[in-house]
Amino acid sequence: MQEEKELKKKYADFKLGVPDYVTVETEDERLVCQGGQPTVTAGATTVEFQDAGEHEDIFVTSEDAVRCVKLRWNYKIPKSARFLGDAWERTYGDVEWHGMSGNRYLPWYFLAKLSEKVLCFGVKVRPSAMCCWQADTKGITLFLDVRCGNTGVQLKGRKLRAAQIVCMESEGADTFETAQEFCKKMCTDPIFPEFPVYGSNNWYYAYGDSSEEEILSDTDYILKLTEGVKNPPFMVIDDCWQEHHRLDEYNGGPWTKGNAKFPDMKGLADKLKEKGVRPGIWVRLLLNEDENIPDEWRISYNDCLDPSHPDALAYIRRDIERICDWGYTLIKHDFSTFDLFGKWGFEANLRDNSMEKWHFYDQTKTSAEIVKMLYQEVYGASRSNNAVIIGCNTIGHLGAGLMHLNRTGDDTSGRIWERTRRMGVNTLAFRLPQHNAFYHIDADCVGIFGMIPWDKNRQWADVLAKSGTPLFVSAKPGVLNPEEFEELHQIMLRASEQKEHFVPLDWEEIDCPEVWGENGETITYDWYDNEGPTMDATVEYYNAKVVVP
After folding, report:
1. Contact 168/181 with Cβ under 8 angstroms?
2. What is the Cα–Cα distance from 77 to 389, expressed in whole angstroms?
3. pLDDT tens digits for 120-177?
4. How many angstroms separate the Cα of 93 from the Cα of each of 33, 510, 525?
5. Closest C-alpha to 190, from 439, 470, 468
6. Dihedral of the CA atoms 367, 370, 374, 376 (nearest 10)?
7. SS3 label, residue 210
């Protein structure tokens, strides 16, 4: 009871109330309306605001093809404030505290730090619109993108709850604690794995060139690295196993069987279990060249599966059920945002109309609703064997409550330390408030291939273990010497329990936090090479060259 009183003293809800302006954009017109009332009608579109207690509901009804609803409040935040926003899907080394910018999109939620308090603005998870905020010297704006593909949604009079707004302010709490508390307010129904998830995934040394024999060898190695644990690790088979796999050319389905290097997927799962690990697997559900799939099931502009078509969704469900029947108890589904929208998160722009007009099969659903349909189907189909679901290239705000883990940042590397530093450390620090609130966050692997100094990889593995988040290693057997092996062994023992919860203490100052701590204990990491960072780590993915003087 005393703890609840202290929390209420630190954190207080507040309401934005009805907006001062409402703008409705349809396929044919853009209407700007004076707000200040709970119901606003713009042409054939009605926008309603309802106080629902701890949040405020926004409903949209229309007979027109609606593209976007924009809400504007004359709520002025001092321009001296510092801001932290989220990202559309994964982060790309690009999240940080920054000054006010009316040109910057703040997807899903944002925090504004003033000298005396922290203000939080957001929408609850799983809205039915793609939502982002903007803040400038005159007010704040919430965009509700309700398109279907890149054309207006055909609601046909259906009353759509587009989003639920939540706001909170804190006093006497630091920004990280505030962000954690606000994430819990946005997600009241998360799902978490029943045990700490960690283990091995050989992508960051094999890069898709693998076999059943190599997976079994990796399994023996991870068992040695985790000797003495009570909680068995996962051995995750990444892109390489599927029937039509073509190295560096094609990584889609069908997902009905393995290839010549993986002749028996069920048999391999059985072998993994017999050895003492939990079997996991990677899949790209929407890219599928099965000739039996009708064109009607495919998205018009790229031929990927369209989850708004009920038969395509049923096809996807059968793929998941088949993998579960084989015995895999972790399923990592990847590429869905790219396959649905044709771009990565860092390329997303709410007002981007560069693509030709296209829409999903079901034009009565918003893109956000269709994304949720896909995530719900994957989660529902996996319940037969209680599999752990990891989303990768997924939209975390739409997936919270439908996935146990989320790969929250772009790929790290087994070859380029700068890429791991930029992508991994940044997403671990700035998505960490979502851990144990939305899902468990996965900041990606430690790639041990002999091309990155162990001193750097050891620190990356150490901070992952100390943060209490899932730790996966891509450790090529034989690379580590006995001393390094023992150091990783001790780190993996901690990762199997995830009892520590170190957080970034200098995250307001830099985009790659160096000082981490918990309960007065701190550690400072050295993330930078002596010669400084590379020019562009985003392009040096596969073909990094190591020059030894």
Report:
1. yes
2. 39
3. 999 999 999 999 999 999 999 999 999 999 999 999 999 999 999 999 999 989 999 9
4. 38, 12, 17
5. 439
6. 120
7. coil
